Amino acid sequence: MQRKKISFAILSAxxxxxxxxxxxxxxxEITSTTSGNSQGQSGQFATKMKISMFNQGxxxxxxxxxxxxEDIQRQMLEEEMNIDxxxxxxxxxxxxxxxxxxxxxxxxxDLIFLKSRADLAQYxxxxxxxxxxxxxDQFPELxxxxxxxxxxxxxxxxxxxxxxxxxxxxxxxxxxxxRNDWLKKLNMEVPTTxxxxxxxxxxxxxxxxxxNGKNDTYGFIGGMNKEGNLQTYGFDSLMWMFGVNPPxxxxxxxxxxxxxxxxxxxxxxxxxxxxMMAAKVVxxxxxxxxxxxxxxxxxxxGRVGFMIRDARRLEPDYQQKMKEISGEVxxxxxxxxxxxxxxDQIVERKSFxxxxxxISAKADEEKIIRILSMLNYLFTxxxxxxxFAYGIKGIHWxxxxxxxxxKTSELSKEMKExxxxxxxxxxxxxxxxxxxxxxxxxxxxxxxxxNQQYVGPTLPGNLLTPxxxxxLDADRTRFINESLVKFMTGKEPLSNWDNFLQTLDTKFDxxxxxxxxxxxxxxxxxxx
Length: 528
Known about the structure:
five-stranded mixed beta sheet; three-stranded antiparallel beta sheet; 11% strand; membrane
């Protein structure tokens, strides 16, 4: 199978004025019956239209679709757009099979939520999806709603073939937690650099910060998933202090790809972690930490002083678990990430925009415009926003002291279950909207807000697709992961770093991977 090319429409600085440049060439401009403004849509569409929606983007696939007379959000969309909306919610794990069955039968839904960019490109190649390029400059507010990197992910072969599905959430799951009560007892300050962090972790390990007279505390614990990948389990966050990350982290600088997992700075990051290992500040159980739940258990037991965990561990339910398991509620605080030797201060990189809304190729011009107008309303109308992001006014949210207050966390279990179906409409919620999460602990909301400034831009390497002719791809990735673990644990001395790079070139054809990346970045217009 021939590798699919990736190519992206360039979003220029005039995106803010609503112009999307595309590489579609001599396509005629389509004149819509609506302006790009989401306000005042009602009444602009004289003819009622039926729209079918395949919504696997729901936040609760198990919730049944309620009758129209009970479905307030559906009523809002139908009235605003003058449509009959038929929404299909596929069962969890069966979405792809269901969609493919519909497509094979010629019954393609008008609006389709897709969970990966690979699916978006594949269905477009199969002729299932429409090219939206001729219409997008008529919806400037929708264009401004999502960032440039999100729109780049919607582009393929020089055409815009989708609309971002919803914001990914960043700045909460990768929070830097530290035991402030231990810092106070040891008369230490919150660390701000890698060296300061090491000294704190060493003290947490050696100076009995819990005062029980036992040698049973550690400065840090991380882990790796069952496939042996270090990403998302803590060690990768330490690597970000040096501006690098494990596979497949690829940056572009000076018109050249930079493979962060083999960058010289990776050697420094591994040397730092190896120093931690040698000083025994890392809980030796890290080798068994292959799930988030196991790391949580370590946090709840209260024997580790520094971790990378979700800021929601400050919420009352998790605090209660700490008390039940360890007999105390430690004074965990979320701190800014350490600033590394090259100026890097990163909590995480912004998640890649994989999910999308796509429109059937069978839809005519009028229907495409109506659907894009609906998405425009759904994602940009500020008055409508709480009705979709939070739920039903008076139940899930209300106006308190002149401000919108999300009350979902205050609902009884019975009320939450009664209105589970509102999760079908929450896609417009913004990824940085603390009110949406309805945090019960103000410190959680504060940590979430503070972390936003340390979320780096999406890595362009996320746009790369494997070359099917590259038969060494899986083995190469496995070798890289295994080698990084050996270096950081000391099983392989860092003096063998050059041998590692040479083996990558000679045995695993790293050059082929580099050439593939360069070619795809050129096709995407990211490298000249």
